[in-house]
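Q&A log
Question type: sequence-to-structure
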Amino acid sequence: MRISVMAPILPKETAGLSEASANFRAMGNSGGSLTTRSAGETTRSTGELHQLMREAGFTGVDDTEALAEGWQVTDFADAGRRSLAHLVERTGTPAVMVSFFDSDVGFIEARTPDGDSWEGLLNRETAESYEIPLEHFPVEPAVAGALAWSAAAGLTPDERAIRQTLTGSALFAEELSSALLVALGLPGAT
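Response status: OK
Response body:
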């Protein structure tokens, strides 16, 4: 599982990743993970989700891990700038995406069906060594966005754990991504 976190809740008109986030993601993508609910008004199979992801602009859609209560995590090779927004519009379910840079840094984007979104960064110390400007990814707005996203998704988040994940360090950004899913309150996340 993989996740990264960036900045504030963005207005509904915002069409996906911020310019800064999209530029940094393009530096050297190592893939990512998408966490979404397979159950909305209709329950979707893994195959249906993979097809919707491809139609939304995700490439290299791969393994899916079932969590609990219809939540699942799907790995992908790459995603377009508006892929998450398109997918959430199509599915009507909240989603959080983490794109990894060489497993060192994670860029997070999350969105609700209402169009609210937030961004964040995982593994800040390592990101700084890559000269990624941390000021583009403020922690407090990301924490606020994560809390609002979790509430909109009907989850019970752990604010302290979210903050620790967004400010913590790990050998692999995927470790922080997994910790973020737990902190967001995703059932079955480990």
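Response note: Helices lie at 19-25, 46-56, 83-91, 124-129, 139-152, 159-167, 173-184.
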